[in-house]
Amino acid sequence: MKRKKKAKRLIGQVFFICIVLFGAMSFISILSMKGNVDNLSKMQEGYPQITKEVQNYRPLVEKYAKEYEVTPYIDVLLAVMMQESGGRGKDPMQSSESFCGKVGCIKDPEQSIKQGVYYFSEVLNDAKGDLKLAIQSYNFGRGFINYVLEETGSYSEEIAIDFSQKMYENASDKSIYSCLRKEAKQYNACYGDIYYVQSVMKYKEGLALE
Question: By the 8 A CB rule, do 58 and 81 touch?
Answer without folding.
Answer: no
